[in-house]
User: Which sequence fits this backbone?
């Protein structure tokens, strides 16, 4: 399926409410547990998504539109959430994420991107030349990836308790 801004926004607009439904008012045994070494907890995912809203998707789209490949993106710190989220609650993070996402969707729609603009190129610090359309499609898939990651971290907490059904639960490690 070819990337389409309106179709992408259908997912992007729902992510905060999906995370609120999954994580709102849960205990830390669900929100702060991960699924192994070097994995994110749901709490970490929220902080990571917030950092992306602040420094990644819309700022990089603006760079592409204004400068093309002549101005490379700043590298994205995939672990900035550990400092950004310090002292905050899950509810505070969800609210902050929802507010930032709403503003970024307004900004995206305000760009009035034509299909030809989705072919404009930017300079990614790791991947080199990328298109605006590929980056925006990645934003959508990035959300879905982290929703799955949240579900995986939560499911992992009962990995041993499910007994023989584990063989049928692809969300759990074999």
Assistant:
């Amino acid at each position: 399926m070819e990337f389409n801004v309106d179709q992408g926004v259908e997912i992007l607009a729902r992510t905060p409410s999906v995370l609120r439904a999954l994580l709102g008012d849960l205990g830390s045994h669900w929100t702060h547990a991960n699924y192994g070494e070097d994995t994110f907890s749901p709490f970490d995912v929220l902080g990571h998504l917030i950092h992306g809203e602040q420094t990644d998707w819309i700022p990089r789209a603006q760079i592409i539109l204004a400068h093309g490949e002549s101005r490379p993106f700043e590298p994205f710190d995939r672990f900035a959430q550990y400092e950004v989220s310090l002292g905050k609650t899950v509810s505070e993070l969800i609210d902050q994420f929802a507010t930032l996402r709403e503003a970024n969707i307004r900004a995206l729609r305000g760009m009035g991107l034509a299909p030809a603009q989705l072919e404009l190129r930017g300079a990614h610090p790791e991947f080199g030349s990328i298109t605006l359309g590929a980056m925006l499609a990645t934003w959508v898939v990035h959300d879905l990836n982290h929703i799955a990651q949240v579900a995986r971290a939560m499911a992992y907490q009962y990995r041993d308790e499910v007994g023989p059904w584990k063989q049928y639960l692809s969300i759990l490690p074999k």
